Amino acid sequence: MVTRACTLILRRGVSTYPSRLCKHDSLFQVHPSVSQALAGNRPVVALESTIITHGMPYPHNLSTAKEVEAIIRAEGATPATVGVIEGKVHVGLSSEELDFLSQCKTSLKVSRRDLAYVISQGLSGGTTVSATMIAAHRAGIPVFVTGGIGGVHRDGENSLDISADLTELGRIPIAVVSAGIKSILDIGRTLEFLETQGVCVATYGSSKNFPAFFSPQSGFSSPHQVCNPKEAAALIASALSLGLQSGILFAVPIPAEQAAAGQEIEEAIQAAVKEASDKCVTGRDVTPFILQKVNELTKGKSLQANIALIHNNAKVGSQIACALSKRQNEKSITTTRQNGNLNKGSDIVVIGGINVDFIAKGKTNTLLSGQTNPGSVCQSFGGVGRNIADALSRLGHNPLFISATGSDFHSEAVFSYCKHMNTSGVVQLKKKSTATYCAVITASGELSLGLGDMDIHQQITEQYVSQFEDQLSGSTLVCLDGNLPVTTINYVCSLVEKHNINVWYEPTDSDKASKPFLSEAWKSLCYASPNFSELCTMNKTLGFPVPQALPDTLDEMLDVAMALSRPLLEHFHCLVVTLGACGVLICGENKAGSIYLQPRKWKTKRQLGALFYPALKVTAEETVNVSGAGDSFAGALIAGILQGRDTDSCVRMGLLAARLSLASAHPISPFLTSDAIDPNKHLNWTRPTFIKIN
């Protein structure tokens, strides 16, 4: 008999107890249009908001902000203007929020140093380059467009007046598209400081000349040059791949038609700089004072040029973001094909839950209540539906995943982690909390306590899922998990019945296993993967007799499992019964001493049989996370079926995937690949036992 820890290898999880865990509103709020674009791997461009709050007078500030967003949308990207409103950082602003910031008389200029204070006081303000970079990077946005960045001020070697924009560029891997550096600054020392910070600087266009905001030439050259969006995207991709953790500055010269006024503006700047010095204007007040004075001296020409260069930067930045997104998506497709992808589209649909999991593992086999026990705690991302979609994605498929999260910090972490998946069907709901699950396990891997807050799963409604009716109707396989509302399960079962589509039902615990069996919906199901307890629940819900206690021996357990499977196989094509430490029992159509797993086109009378596979041995020391082994098994088994593999290969792929999961901090191991679970590379297999079902 295998070790006790092996009881977890095919255990999907245990019953969880709903609990109102302590909730805190996230300090960062991402607009739904931005989160959906990021989830779908579509281009997003971040924008600062000090240009709204401090850079231009009303209403020019508001009209410019909206014009810039419109330019970005016209280029095929999603704008994400960043601002702080009443103590919360917003990544992406609504029209009403833009209006608010453009007219707010008490708004502050928020740099990195100010973020904590402004948030703690519940204040509002426009984010500078440095603060915007922080928010954009946290949301997963790689491209940020601004007018011009800050720099080393003149006499900065004595005053040490150096913009936080420069140090932020040195520690955040984000591409900043700007018109260079304002000529009121010390451009030479600024470029030297950027070099010290390890920031890659490249002029965008046909020249290496480094621009000075209102002028295409500053008298200095950039170290590098890119000529078009494709080259810029390649540079960003290389930097991200290297993991340098520093930014890139793309310096975009002002358009030629506006540059003609540059000399007049430069003269006005010099006059404004002198006046600022004479009036002892210092610190953060210098730039707004000079810009206002220059606008007066040039009779609005500087404002027009400012708006024009911002428009141009937005266009260039959007084109770079689109080229980067295209490059990343093409690379993803290429990688997927190299991993054995047989599906060019999302012909698999998975509908189910997303959880943020917290796994606490004690260092002893006995955990004492009422005191702190030594152990380790790790965070991962789970949910039965998410886990199966994750496994399929890592094994060369491209399933469409439909689910719901809250609009909180947890959801942003989920989307960031799940970038390799097609999460375009996941909705973010305001004023809702992303599902969380906490498991406390002993040193040997036994579950001591599980707590779950799963209310958000009830928002995966029939009405929401019906938006994807075309994808469902055209799919090869639909997978449902037991977290879904009964009405949603009934809707999907009714729809797939019309189109003769195979459905896999993955029960999540004994209580939820009954959901499809409360009506005739279960007759539309093709596959299910219950454990022994869930199989009993299915039978009990249909009114069939079930044992009062677990069988004592393996032979008795197999006999009872086959007896419980027999009535369900009147409609199910196949049942995969997981038996903990014992192994797995595959029940279905007897075909030449094996079980036929491939999807069927229609229901016919058939001879039934079962195959029993012993579990793989996993020691307590190897067991890290028990929350995803069953889902890993199911995902790999489904992948094998859809790839047309024989039954032995499919089941052994599942067993190997489950073993990987147990040894990983994540429910689905990041090391899960087709090669890692190739059954032909693991030769010490115990032959399965075939049993006829009467």
Written description of the protein model:
The chain has about 700 residues and is of the alpha/beta class. Helix content is about 40%, strand content about 20%. The strands form three sheets. Strands 2, 3, 4, 5, 6, 7, 8, 9, 10, 11 and 12 form an eleven-stranded mixed sheet that branches. The longest helix is centred in the middle third of the chain and has 38 residues, at about 300-340.
Describe the structure concisely for a colleague.
The chain folds into 2 domains: 365 residues, UDP-N-acetylmuramoyl-L-alanine:D-glutamate ligase (3-Layer(aba) Sandwich); 291 residues, Indigoidine synthase fold. Strand 4 and strand 5 form a beta hairpin. Strands 2, 3, 4, 5, 6, 7, 8, 9, 10, 11 and 12 form an 11-stranded mixed β-sheet that branches. Strands 13, 16, 17, 20, 21, 22, 23, 24, 25, 26 and 27 form an 11-stranded mixed β-sheet that branches.
Distance between the termini: 28 Å
Instruction: Give a quick account of the main beta sheet: strands, pairing sense, barrel closure.
Output: 11 strands, mixed
Structural class: alpha/beta
Mean of pLDDT? 85
Which of globular, elongated, flat, extended, rod-shaped describes the shape?
A: elongated
Find the CATH topology of the largest domain: UDP-N-acetylmuramoyl-L-alanine:D-glutamate ligase
Radius of gyration, in Å, reads: 30 Å
Could you name the ranges where pLDDT drops below 50 across 5 or more consecutive residues? Answer: 1-25, 333-344
Number of strands: 27
